[in-house]
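Predict the 3D structure for this chain.
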Amino acid sequence: PKELSLGELERLTRRYAASILPLIGPQQDIPAPDVYTNPQIMAWIMDTYSMMKREGYPVPGVVTGKPLSAGGSRGRDEATGRGVFHALESAFEHLHMRMKGAKVVVQGFGNAGSIAALMLDSHQALVIAVNDSRGGVYNKAGLDIPKLMLHKERTGSVVGFPGAEPISTEDLLALECDVLIPAALENAINGDNAANVRTKIIAEAANGPLTREADAILEQKGVFIIPDILCNAGGVTVSYFEWVQNEQHLEWELHEVHERLERTIKRAFSEVLDLHRQRKVSMRLAANMLGIGRVAEATAVRGLYP
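Done. Predicted structure below.
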């Protein structure tokens, strides 16, 4: 997508939206943004769906992550990173750790990683290393995250940030720290490099950043893992909030979105943690048990038809 013109990207998006039209809808599957997508792309999908349905009015609830002017929600852009931060707040409380002065490493300085880093920095944690697809930067005394975000916005990468030294992905993942946030692509930590990881907490901002082999190695080492299904749920949670606003023709204030998101993430963390303790299983297994249990209960209550 980075190599396409705006016109090419729009045509590609609209053609794809037309192809999946029978599968999506405000009461069916609802696409949300992810890697290499943005509010403009979501607006094109919404417009294509609305025009092809020929109902005579826009259908904003068919996708989430839209611009505010097209029915988007305040706080959606930062939701995933903010959810990671709230999950970490709960983890720090559970482990009796202090956020102030905690050393943080972020692998992947995109939307989720940068917002999580910014919020941790604002609560006096030390973000000592970050990277993106072009390279990484490290400063043992802590990076100035607001300035780093401006540097990336201006140059397109964290590489070359003044006052920091370059660092490879391999060395970044092996840094001694209190929190490691894998916020890039899946399988970043695997059987080959998991033994080198030296952290107390892993907060999975990405989807599936740990392989099964890595999971087992890190569990054995006593690393507290906040699984992706819980840790990065902020984005899909605020996507749900956006859909609710669209369906009810309402527009929530930013503080309402933030407060509802914080309550949702912290309640979910508490419920997963309770199951983790009661059943003596990993946080990942506890999260899956909780989710599947809810589906099973609803299925049993509804019964079979006919």
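The first strand starts at residue 103 and ends at 107.
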